[in-house]
Specification:
Blueprint (H helix, E strand, L loop, with lengths): L3 E6 L3 H11 L5 E7 L2 H10 L4 E5 L7 H9 L6 E6 L4 H9 L4 E4 L4 H14 L2 E2 L1 H10 L13 H11 L4 H8 L3 H15 L4 H10 L4
Parallel strand pairs: 1-2, 1-3, 3-4, 4-5, 5-6
Length: about 210
C-alpha cells in the first residue's frame, strides 16, 4: 500500500491520541492529523489532502453524519470510515445511504480499524459481518427506514421531551405556540415511524441524537 494521510475526527482527546499512536507505527502511514470539532475538520480539509478519514459520528454540535454529507459532494473526497459506539439500525442504514466506505464499532478496537483501512484502500469499501447482516435484514424496506438527520426544531423537541419538559416549556424554548409544538411532535412521530412519544425517545437514544 502507498503511504497515506489520515484525519482522525473525534471530540475525545484520549481516543484521538490512542488511535494516532497506534497508526503512527504502521508502515503505510504518511501523516496523521486530528480534529475535535467541525471547525477544525473543515480547516484541515481545506488545507490538506487525505486518503482516509476516521469520523466519529456522535460529535458535539454538528453531527458527524452532517460532516460526511458535506464530503459526499466533493469530487475528490477521501474514503470515510464511520467510527461509532452506536448500533441503531436507522443510524447504520442512514450512514450506508450517505455513501460511507466503512463502519467500525468502537468496542471492536484498533484491529478492526486497521482491517477497515487496509480493505478500503484495496477495494474501496469494508463492512463487518454485523453490517452486512443489517443490510440483508433490511433490504426489503431500505427506502422506508426513516432518516436520522433531523431539523434543528426536531432535535430541540426531542431534547425537551427527554428532559421531562412540558409542551408549554418546550414551546417557550422553541418560540412556538403550544399547538404548533404539538403538531411538530405528531409529525415527528409519523416521520420516524414510531407509535408514540416513548418511541421517539427510544429512537433518539438508539441513534445518539440526545
Amino acid at each position: 500500500m502507498k503511504k497515506i494521510n489520515i484525519l482522525i475526527v473525534d471530540d475525545e482527546a484520549l481516543i484521538r491520541e490512542g488511535i494516532k499512536s497506534l497508526l503512527e507505527k504502521e508502515p503505510f502511514v504518511n501523516q496523521i492529523h486530528e480534529a475535535a470539532n467541525a471547525t477544525e475538520f473543515y480547516q484541515l480539509i481545506r488545507q490538506n489532502s487525505f486518503e482516509i478519514i476516521l469520523l466519529d459520528i456522535k460529535l458535539p454540535g454538528i453531527k458527524g453524519q452532517e460532516l460526511l454529507n458535506s464530503l459526499i459532494r466533493k469530487d475528490d473526497r477521501p474514503k470515510v470510515i464511520a467510527v461509532t459506539g452506536l448500533e441503531g439500525i436507522e443510524l447504520i442504514i442512514s450512514l450506508l445511504k450517505s455513501g460511507v466506505n466503512g463502519i467500525v464499532f468502537k468496542l471492536d478496537g484498533y484491529s478492526e480499524i486497521l482491517k477497515a483501512i487496509n480493505e478500503i484502500m484495496a477495494t474501496g469499501h469494508y463492512f463487518h459481518e454485523k453490517i452486512t447482516n443489517i443490510i440483508q435484514s433490511n433490504a426489503h424496506k431500505w427506502d422506508l427506514v426513516p432518516p436520522v438527520l433531523l431539523t434543528f426544531q426536531e432535535n430541540e423537541l426531542l431534547r425537551g421531551i427527554a428532559g421531562g419538559l412540558t409542551t408549554k416549556q418546550i414551546a417557550e424554548q422553541l418560540k412556538m405556540t403550544e399547538a404548533t409544538t404539538e403538531t411538530y411532535r405528531t409529525r415527528l412521530i409519523k416521520k420516524l415511524g414510531v407509535p408514540n412519544t416513548a418511541g421517539l425517545l427510544a429512537y433518539a437514544f438508539r441513534n445518539g441524537l440526545i
